[in-house]
Amino acid sequence: MKEEAASLYEELSRSPEDWSVRLRLIEYAVSEADFEEARRLVRTSPDEDNFLPSELQDRIHALLTGAPRQESFEMDDESGES
Fold first, then answer.
1. Residues in contact with 54: Cβ distance below 8 Å, sequence separation at least 6, in sequence order
2. Count of Cβ atoms closer than 10 Å to residue 14 Cβ
3. Running DSSP on this structure, what letter comes out for residue 15?
4. 65, 67, 21, 69: which is closest to 45 by C-alpha?
5. What's the rounded Cα separation, in Å, for the pair 11 and 7?
6. What is the DSSP letter of 31?
7. Are the beta carbons of 32 and 26 closer than 8 angstroms?
8. Domain ranges of the chain
9. Per-residue three-class SS string for 40-81
10. pLDDT tens digit string along 13-68?
11. How far, CA to CA in Å, does 81 sit from each of 38, 59, 67?
């Protein structure tokens, strides 16, 4: 997997906006328990001005926290409280 990761880093350097590559590297970093690298990969995206699709936000959140995003901030339907 390290060889594949090296190849993905090369690909990311050529296309830093490619979230499919970035996400695979984030998944790899998390599998290696390297959460600092996973966070760095999110923070260094050149898409700072663009919102990510919610599916991608949910996947990144789940990887970095271990919990699906929608379960992290579930609100009570009647009271509007968490």
1. none
2. 8
3. -
4. 21
5. 6
6. H
7. no
8. 2-72
9. HHHHCCCCCCCCCCHHHHHHHHHHHHCCCHHHHCCCCCCCCC
10. 999 989 999 999 999 999 999 999 999 999 888 876 677 788 888 899 999 898 65
11. 31, 24, 19
Q: Can you give the pTM of this predicted structure? A: 0.72
Q: Provide φ and ψ at 74, rounded to 5°.
A: -65, 140
- Provide the residue count of the chain: 82
**How many Cα atoms are found within 13 Å in the side-chain-facing hemisphere of 19?**
15
Q: What is the pLDDT of residue 54?
A: 85
Phi and psi torsions of 34, nearest 5°: -105, 75
